[in-house]
């Protein structure tokens, strides 16, 4: 696998319009990233991630999922080229010297530009590859993921697990009503109802295009809970799913409409609670 291919398929299609990328990365790490913890736990439990696991995380963000795998004893490698600011935070969390007692390079992080970090000489093949960023919300993300997985698969042992993630049914994801704001603002000619997350069949299609064999799936409840509306707004915008909307309108308009869309989920104490379900697919390398 060439590092340029890793970088190409983990990068967003358009530049981030907001100026303070470091603040946005902090919002992701401190607010939004933890919303998928139940998903990470369910996958790691099912795949029995532990001291004998060598895991490659594609699109590792600020490293929370890797941290959880490392806490189980796994040796982890993370690739994140879409947002260097997130990778910097992952390095803060996962520097090798923070794991006292571990011998050797238990944790590696890269932007995909250094192939020796992704697959160092003498390394055993990866046993698990994860792509935890849910697909189906932005145009072309499934095609890019297929190509990325096809390139990463040779780094894994035969029959290794590859994990793909998508949103659950819209009727079970209250966040879908807020995400429709992004679709409406980014492309006014499309109706809000045209937003559709990836289905199980979509995930299987991605796997099959990458030469992987589907081998099980599951659903996990991942409610989005926020201290207040401001926190919810920061967390949701940090996902990058509203970038096209900001580019097509302006940040003030997006903030206003997202805040309005959040109102049905504001509880009496001011907190925001949005039940959601995510689905994951486990595929196997050939």
From TrEMBL:
GO biological process annotation, one example: methylation
Molecular function as annotated in GO: methyltransferase activity
InterPro entries found in the cross-reference section: SAM-dependent_MTases_sf (IPR029063)
Keyword set, alphabetical order: Methyltransferase, Transferase
Designated name of the protein: SAM-dependent methyltransferase
Organism: Streptomyces tabacisoli
